[in-house]
């Protein structure tokens, strides 16, 4: 039974990688890479232990958005009233 061959990015040869635990090694140049890790395990978001800081940040962003919408509304009201003729 023949082992599947793959392209080695370091020595640019087609080789049958040697399985060593959760990694594979090129028999020609020794290049190794890890296998078996899912995307979620490799790129997990940072864990924030400061829940109060996270909630405070969300509240501040919400208040700033509401103030920006209010300022735009007042500006539109001012422009609308300034063009009215009595």
Structural description of this entry:
This protein is 42% helix and 15% strand. The model has no long low-confidence stretch (mean pLDDT 82). Strands 3-4-5 form a three-stranded antiparallel sheet, with no helix packed on it. It has 86 residues and is α+β, with helices and mostly antiparallel strands. The protein has two helices and five strands; from the N terminus they run βββββαα. The radius of gyration is 30 Å and the shape is elongated.
List the helices and strands and how they pair.
Elements: E1 6-7, E2 14-15, E3 18-20, E4 23-25, E5 32-34, H1 39-42, H2 51-82
Antiparallel strand pairs: 1-2, 3-4, 4-5
User: How do the helices and strands follow one another from N- to C-terminus?
Assistant: EEEEEHH
Oligomer: single chain
* Radius of gyration (Å): 30 Å
Average pLDDT confidence is: 82
Strand order of the largest sheet: 3-4-5
Number of strand segments: 5
End-to-end span in angstroms?
A: 94 Å
Principal-axes shape call:
elongated
Low-confidence stretches: none
Helical amount among residues, as a percent range? 40-55%
Give me some keywords for this one.
3-stranded antiparallel β-sheet, 5 strands, alpha+beta, single chain, elongated, 86 residues
A few lines on this structure:
The protein is α+β, with helices and mostly antiparallel strands and 86 residues long. It has helices at residues 39-42, 51-82; strands at 6-7, 14-15, 18-20, 23-25, 32-34.
């Amino acid at each position: 039974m023949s082992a599947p061959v793959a392209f080695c990015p370091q020595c640019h040869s087609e080789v049958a990688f040697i399985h060593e635990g959760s990694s594979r090694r090129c028999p020609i140049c020794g290049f190794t890479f890890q296998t078996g890790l899912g995307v979620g395990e490799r790129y997990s978001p940072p864990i924030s232990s400061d829940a109060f800081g996270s909630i405070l940040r969300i509240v501040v962003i919400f208040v700033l958005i509401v103030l920006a919408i209010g300022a735009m509304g007042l500006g539109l009201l001012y422009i609308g009233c300034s063009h009215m003729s009595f």
